[in-house]
Write a structure and sequence with these properties.
heterotrimer, A mainly alpha (286), B mainly alpha (276), C alpha/beta (439), A: 286 residues, mainly alpha, MetI-like fold, B: 276 residues, 2 domains, Bact_solute-bd_prot1 (chain C), SBP (chain C), signal (chain C)
């Protein structure tokens, strides 16, 4: 096959994505160097690095970077660990396996906004929420989740959404696991735990890498849950980088600074991606 | 206890545990559904009302206030439209990368994924201004274009991973018979990877359906999908949890039910090339 | 030949079809962006009445939650996109946007009776004497309290009590074991949420946002006193989760009978006295907002109003709609359709003079008094360079107020001290003002 044909087949994707990247990116780079506030759209002077400086020296910047990473790593940890355990569990036949699987993956189909609304209002509300009711039934003081554990609450919501995705991928992978190998190991007297450790986990190495990769892309950009439930607060306790940029762009209407923030977020995302790809990359036969 | 009994007991325990986890994780959705049939006072009563006379008044109110069919139609058109478009663009690319890999293939794929790293809110202004200048504000076309480009990298990647594991011999045999690349894709590759393609499509549809940022900022009115409809019910003056639940149920039901029906497909196709 | 006639016929048919379509197009469709508050939803439901009176105008609604609406309309107006013909905006935006030349002045000629509009509201929505947005409803803040609980506790609540007295009443009424909390106040971060209330407290303690040189004053003694008082009051006698409560959450609590007192928007009065939604409808008393060092700026002033962007091509139809929706006749229409207790209030003197309204709304007098006592041009004890009671009508305030709101809600939830919160808020305000080259 000629190289030209293969190139031709790839061209649409590559050209479109190149345009999708270059046009907004170059505009963003331009905006990040000028003064551009929606409230003063006519003042467009060149300001050099000022927007970047303004964004980085924002007292919210460091907490936002930290929160972004904490959120990312916690959700990755929760979804991968529980995802592996649960999918190994439901891989074995039991009564109602099909229904259980359907129930487990359902949260993935719920809109992030609705997800946050359900958790904020009906689960975590300290007066009317289900959690408060459970606490008071046991004679405990209800926990005020969103005020006292804001980041943890967000982690719970996001994990709830993405755990089903991990389960889906792992269940798919487990179906292809060599049953003969497993049976042979059992004959040799290997315990369930041994099989899990030495056969299942290695078999899942690649799907785990896939889950980490895809989730990272989405988790770095978590936004709707924060907007709906905590507004980044109290203080900066649940502000992540995306929310901070949103704050600049759509609460303060400072497009220049928001653009600078967006570019910094790209840099951060690429640093994270670099380390993640190195960590899981050998399993990721791209 | 005999070995058989022991095994049965183990299966029972597994089932019990799996069921309880599933019920706990599903509970919030169930609760939203139940709340949508309550009156507003029942919705915030403490302790939570479990037994009540269900009412449809919330659904009636939602229907009165917003044009559900219009929003749902917009959601269907934008998510299915962009998914089909993305597949048409992605399949040839994935095919070419999987069967004729070059030195740069891996780099290209990683680069494609990296285009997803630019946070949407950071590029809102450029996209907004472009949409305005090309008359795309508040049109479904704007959403279809954005959703297509948004999901294209993941679609290419998923299809690539799958195609890569197809036996090369079949293709070679087809080529011997004088098949063109077009024939190869349509007659050989596609039939072999229907499962992967449909699960990729499903994933893309779900992601589009639930996307809220672009739809709220670019298409608030005529082309508004269901995510924008929800925005008119969240935190109004007064807590209207029951109405909010009804609107949310209406917005999520199509995709959840669709997901349930396609669950088998998803579980078979989301291999990401993991099957060796 | 036969074919040709067929074609001609087809042409004629399609031409006439096109013409009838054109005549249908003579009807103007306007797009109205609005907030999903109760009164606006009512307006949306009454659209048929407007379309019947003006058959050549069709109204299309975009109803959104407050924050999203503000983003959408600001994007639209600043970029001159022209998606909306009528926008719902607040008292903060109206003068700023008017100054920018983004809004078409409201046509107040003829039967509109502009002098009927409450003076403070009219002033707040004008820039240099021109009215840029027509008030749809207006509000101030006041104390709403449970007469039964306060009486049982042997206390009284009256107009312009001192904040210390309010604290004592809260302490006397507070009974969390029974699920009753002394006082419900806003705590959710946002310049229109917690900062609206906190600013009025600060005003009454003698504080101001900026001094005459536009230097932020958040670290002043008065701000520290006020915020310490607020945090202490809410932590001791407020419901759990106060730092995520705003108007809605407090309203639900009050209606459930869980608040002894509630200081919030006067618009709440019509909800808490409505037996259909409130369990305590017949036990609600009203009083003017508490004070400390001064009466100035002790209660806020806000109005949701309808404005017409300068970019719209359908200004005439838009004017017709705005004049209809903010007219005396509209208020009457709501009164006759939904009862007089449910009319949009706080805009027109004639509403308060209407006997039917006075009879239906027990809160009428208190509300009018609160609105009339708020003066956006003179709301601080020490002189200040800005207009607005619970905000400063400058573009930078959104950023400053948002950050301050986040910090103070952090102080309320206990994740930082009041001094720290005010210090961060002041640093951030100073950054913004410096950047905007105020000094």
């Amino acid at each position: 096959m000629k190289r030209s044909i293969t190139r031709l087949l790839m061209a649409p994707s590559v050209i479109l994505l190149l345009a999708w990247m270059i046009i907004p990116l170059s505009m963003t780079i331009y905006f990040s160097t000028i003064e551009f506030s929606l409230y003063n759209p006519d003042q467009n002077g060149f300001v050099g690095w000022e927007n970047f400086e303004f964004f980085i020296t924002d007292p919210a910047f460091m907490p936002a970077v930290a929160n972004t990473l904490i959120l990312l790593l916690s959700v990755l940890f929760i979804t991968v660990v529980f995802g592996v355990m649960l999918s190994a569990l439901i891989d074995k036949p039991f009564y109602g396996q099909g229904i259980v699987r359907v129930l487990l993956i359902s949260p993935f189909f719920i809109m992030p906004t609705v997800n946050a609304l359900i958790w904020k209002n009906m689960m975590m509300n300290p007066v009317y929420g289900i959690f408060a009711w459970i606490s008071t039934s046991f004679g405990l003081e209800p926990i005020d989740w969103l005020s006292n554990h804001p980041l943890m609450s967000i982690i719970m919501m996001v994990s709830w959404q993405w755990l089903p995705f991990a389960i889906l991928v792992f269940v798919t992978a487990l179906q292809s696991q060599d049953t003969e190998q497993k049976e042979a190991a059992q004959m040799d007297g290997a315990t369930g735990l041994h099989i899990f450790r030495y056969l299942t986990i290695p078999h899942l190495a690649r799907p785990i890498a896939v889950v980490v990769m895809i989730e990272t892309i989405f988790l770095l950009a978590v936004f709707a849950e924060i907007l709906v439930s905590t507004n980044g607060g109290p203080g900066y306790d649940s502000t992540n980088l995306t929310y901070l940029i949103y704050n600049q762009a759509l609460l303060q209407f400072d497009v220049g600074t928001a653009s600078a923030g967006g570019l910094l977020a790209v840099v951060l995302a690429n640093i994270v991606a670099f380390f993640l790809i190195r960590a899981v990359g050998k399993n990721l036969t791209v | 206890m005999t070995l058989n009994q022991q095994r049965k007991f183990k299966t029972f325990l597994t089932g019990l545990f799996a069921w309880s986890v599933a019920l706990v994780l599903f509970f919030p959705i169930f609760w939203m559904f139940i709340t949508s049939f309550k009156t507003e006072l029942q919705a915030i009563s403490v302790p939570p009302a479990l037994f009540f006379e269900p009412t449809l008044e919330n659904y009636v109110e939602v229907q009165e206030r917003s044009d559900y069919v219009k929003h749902a139609l917009n959601s269907v058109i934008t998510s299915f439209g962009s998914t089909i478009l993305a597949l048409i663009i992605a399949i040839p690319a994935a095919y070419s990368m999987a069967f004729f890999p070059g030195k740069r293939t891996k780099d290209i794929l990683l680069w494609m994924l990296s285009t997803k790293m630019l946070p949407a809110v950071g590029v809102l202004m450029p996209i907004y201004l472009l949409s305005r200048d090309y008359g795309l504000l508040d049109t479904r076309a704007a959403l279809v274009i954005i959703f297509t480009l948004m999901n294209l990298p993941i679609i290419v990647w998923m299809l690539f991973s799958y195609f890569k594991d197809l036996p090369k011999e079949i293709l070679e045999a087809a080529r011997m018979d004088g098949a063109t690349p077009w024939d190869e894709i349509v007659k050989v590759v596609l039939p072999l990877s229907l499962g992967a393609i449909s699960s990729t499509a499903l994933l893309s549809i779900v992601l589009c359906w639930n996307e809220a940022f672009w739809s709220l900022n670019l298409t608030p009115s005529d082309a508004a999908p269901l995510t924008a409809m929800i925005a008119s019910y969240s935190s109004p003056e007064g807590l209207f949890w029951a109405k909010l639940s009804a609107a949310s149920t209406l917005a999520c039901a199509p995709i959840v039910i669709f997901g349930w029906f396609c669950q088998k497909q998803l579980v078979q196709g989301l291999t990401f090339g993991a099957v060796k | 030949m036969k074919n040709l006639t067929k074609t001609t016929l087809a042409c004629a048919v399609s031409l006439s079809a096109a013409m009838s379509a054109a005549s249908a197009l003579a009807e103007t469709q306007i797009t109205v962006a609005t907030v999903n508050n109760g009164h606006m939803i009512e307006m949306q439901k009454l659209t048929p009445a407007f379309e019947k009176a003006h058959p050549d105008i069709k109204v299309k609604w975009v109803t959104l939650e407050e924050n999203i609406l503000r983003q959408n309309v600001t994007q639209d107006i600043a970029n001159k996109s022209g998606l909306y013909d009528v926008m719902t905006i607040g008292m903060y935006e109206a003068p700023i946007w008017g100054d920018r030349g983004w809004l078409t002045p409201v046509d107040v000629s003829g039967s509109y009776d502009v002098d009927d509009i409450l003076p403070s509201i009219r002033q707040g929505l004008s820039h240099e004497g021109t009215l840029y947005a027509a008030p749809f409803y207006g509000e101030s803040s006041m104390v709403m309290y449970r007469k039964d609980l306060v009486k049982d506790a042997g206390m009284t609540v009256s107009d312009r009590d001192s904040w210390e007295h309010i604290r004592d009443v809260a302490a006397a009424v507070h009974n969390p074991d029974e699920g009753v909390y002394g006082i419900c106040l806003r705590g959710k971060a946002g310049w229109g949420d917690n900062m609206a209330l906190v600013t009025t407290i600060a005003n009454s303690f003698g504080a101001r946002w900026f001094d005459e040189d536009w230097k932020p004053q958040l670290e002043s003694k008065e701000w520290k006193q006020a915020v310490n008082f607020y945090v202490d009051l809410v932590t001791k006698y407020g419901p759990p989760g106060s730092s995520s409560n705003s108007f809605n959450e407090s309203l639900a609590l009050f209606n459930e009978g869980r608040c002894g007192m509630w200081i919030d928007a006067t618009i709440a009065a019509s909800f808490v006295t409505d037996p259909a939604q409130s369990k305590v409808a017949d036990q609600v008393g009203f009083a003017q907002s508490p004070i400390s060092a001064t009466e100035k700026g002790a209660n806020w002033l806000w109005s949701w109003s309808l404005a017409i962007p300068a970019a719209t091509k359908k200004a005439e139809a838009a004017q017709t709609f705005v004049r209809w929706a903010t007219s005396k006749e509209y208020i009457e229409l709501v009164g006759e359709t939904n009862g007089w207790a449910a009319v949009p209030t706080g805009t027109r003197t004639s509403t308060y003079e209407n006997a039917k309204f006075q009879k239906a709304a027990v809160f009428a007098e208190a509300e009018l008094k609160a609105i009339n006592s708020a003066d956006p041009t003179d709301s601080t004890l020490k002189p200040s360079p800005y207009v607005g009671v619970q905000f400063a009508a400058i573009p930078e305030f959104q950023a400053i107020g948002t950050t301050a709101g986040q910090m103070i809600s952090g102080a309320l939830s206990g994740s930082m001290s009041v001094d720290q919160a005010l210090k961060s808020a002041n640093v951030s305000a100073d950054r913004q003002m410096r950047r905007a080259k105020y000094y």
